[in-house]
Amino acid sequence: MDPKTLDHVAFWLADREPIAETLTTRFGMHVIDRQDNFTLVGADARRGKLTLFSAEGPREQGAFKHVALRVSKLPEGETGFDLGEGVRVLLVEAETESEYDLDHVALYSVDPAQTAEAYERFGFEPASPSAEGHPRVEVGGAYVEFQPLLNHLAVLVDSVDEHIAEAEDMGVVDNVVDAANTRAVFVWGPERVRIEYVEHKPEFALT
Fold first, then answer.
1. pLDDT at residue 152 in the model
2. Distance CA 104, CA 132 (A)
């Protein structure tokens, strides 16, 4: 398998027209093709595009987190947009031959590193991690990025300090958080799942 570029990202939508309208009015895109069952939107027909398929809703979002469009200079103000029906678009600043070209697609994964490696079988090239450290693969200068589906698990303990000391000995400390009602240490568990050991302070008063 030898893919050349990331051509388009496709979505199932109960009502595609409002999303197509937002993409064309806010992001400098235009409708490249409109058929009975889909609308193809992009800034350039030969570059990365979004395909909006009609489907009976509601549908589960699945692994999709967001799609990022590349611009040479970020606008002032908001750079992330929820377009409805689970479609989230981000703008990222990067060198680009075409404004609003596809930069990356972010997908949730139970095991991001293993999933990235599995994509290599399908012609995707290994790539360095994202700025946030998420595993990713590349195709024609665009990326597919894999982010953990789970943020963390939390367990209650009597003494966070004791757990900090043990976690430091194990070399697995992520960070320590001292909040108004709790104190916690986050550690890296198996398969890079974060585990929070949290201690309730005497004044714990959440309701």
1. 76
2. 14
CB 147 within 8 A of CB 109: yes
Q: In order along the chain (207 residues), what is the average pLDDT of each group of 10 residues? A: 87 94 92 93 90 84 89 91 93 92 92 92 93 92 89 84 91 88 86 83 65
The three-state secondary structure class of 108 is: strand
196/182 Cα distance (integer angstroms): 11
pLDDT at 207: 47
Indicate the DSSP class of residue 191.
Answer: G
- The whole-angstrom separation of Cα 124 and Cα 65 is 19
d(CA 84, CA 41): 16
Give CA torsion, residues 100, 115, 125, 188, to 10 deg.
90
> Please, what is the end-to-end C-alpha distance for the chain in angstroms?
55
**Which pTM was predicted?**
0.75
Q: Report the alpha-carbon distance of residue 107 to residue 6 in Å, rounded.
A: 15
Name the token pair of 15.
């009502």
